[in-house]
Structure formats: C-alpha cells, structure tokens
Amino acid sequence: MALLVAAASQVFVLGGVASASAPTVQQSRQAVSGTQTQVAAANKSLATANRIYRTGRLANVNCSPGSLPAGSTSAYRRFLTRMTDCLNKAWAAQFRKAKMPFSKPRLRIITRKVSTPCGKWATGAQGYYCSGDRTMYMLITKTELRQPFPLGIARLVAHEYGHHVQQISKIWSYYWSAYNKAGRSQRLALSRRSELQAECFAAVFVSTQRGGSLFTEAEWDHTVNWFSENGSRAWPQNDHGRGPTQAAWMTRGYNGGAPGSCNTWSASARSTT
Fold this sequence. Notes:
- The structure is a single chain.
- The chain is an alpha/beta fold.
- Helix content is 50%, strand content 6%.
- It contains eight helices and four strands.
- Strands 1-3-4-2 form a four-stranded mixed sheet, covered by helices on one side.
- α1 packs across α5, α4 (150-168) packs across α6 (184-207) and α5 packs antiparallel against α6.
- The longest helix is centred in the first third of the chain and has 26 residues, at 73-98.
- The chain is globular.
- It starts with 7 loop residues before the first strand and ends in a 17-residue tail after the last helix.
C-alpha cells in the first residue's frame, strides 16, 4: 500500500517596518522600538487567535473524486482536480463563516520536478505550495501511478491546500515575519508549527469524508501509524516534526473536525517537536 509523504512548501514575504519621527535620536529609537513591539504582538495574533479557529466544524461537501485505477495519468489528474474542487467548496464556506475574504489556489499538475517562483523543488516533496503564485504543484510519478493510494493522495492535496489556508488567512504573515528574524533553531521550530498545522488542516478535511467511498477507518489508522513511524524520514532536517508528532496532529485534526483543533501557534514547544 503506497503512502505519500507530507509535502514541503516555501514562500518569501517582505515585512514592513513601522517607525515614528521624534525630536531626538533617543526618543526616535524608543518610538521605533515601541511601535515594532506593538506591530509584532498584533501580527502574532494572526497566528495564535485567527478568526478561522472560531468557525466550528469544516463543512462536508460530499466529495466524490472518482476512482483511481493504476497506470492512468488521466484518472490521476481528474482525481487531483476534483479533490481540489472539494477543498475549494469546504474552505470557502469556512471563510464565509469567519467573514474573511477567500480566494482559490491554482492547481498545476506536473510529471517532473520544476522550479517555482518560490525557488527550486524541495527535497523530499511530492507536492508543493508556493505563495508567490498561490499555486499547488502536484507531482505525479511512476511510483504513484503503479500503486495509487486514494487516501494518501487526498491527504497530500489537503496538506498543500492547508498552506493556502495559512496564506489567505494571514497566519503566514506572522510566520514569515518571525522566520526572517529568527536563527536556525528557531526557524526550524517555526517551520514545524506551520507544517504540523497544515497536516492538521488536512486531517480536518479528511474527517469530513469519513464513512464515504474515499477510505476506510482501517486505511486511516494505517496512514496515521505510517506517519508515526516514517513521517520524518523524507526531510533532511527536523522542519516538519517527528513522526509521532505528525501523527498526533493528524489525529487531533481528524477527531476534532474543525480548524480550531489545529492551533499549533499556541501549542507548547513539546507538542510541536
């Protein structure tokens, strides 16, 4: 049973710096420092207290992506397209409840690794979200074609879509402003919070398909166990979280069924290792 690993994502954000004029250099420094502290606190609340967390359970849009026979690139493309349509409907409804603007991501299906406006293809990734063009790049390889696993592929699309949710909800406004100022260890910690949240968002969506034709509970349990044992092996550094940590956030999202279950930004450091 083939399982797709969690996918990486990259984005580049330029943050503005607030300042204020004052009669003296010392007063100016104090004003700038105070304003920057206020801006940082307000910015962090976009991640820790985002309105998307208060929208309740994600809508069940009765997703029917169709069959996924082995060896069929056209069926694989159709599956990815329909799954993205389902995610668009579910998250659009959630953003309406939050009274936040919503926009769909673009979907680009590829059969070889490509460069994006966010840079080179990330090592270990089967899918990739770039905020530079707000596009999900989904890679179809011969391995997946030989033995496609619908739940694994659906989870991968939903993970990349989770990064789009972070982008348009402005959760990433805090992430990248903090990332650009952080040292190496803190950058890894911030990356883990972002990736674990996307994984949790994916599980929230998957939970809306429970009892349908997409997967069985046994397949879900198998997937979670696989991530617990293997989830970190694809990544050269701990920027996605340890396998058991990934599995824990998957379980939390699946059981909670709501974006509010996925607030990694307010979680303890121990739970995002």
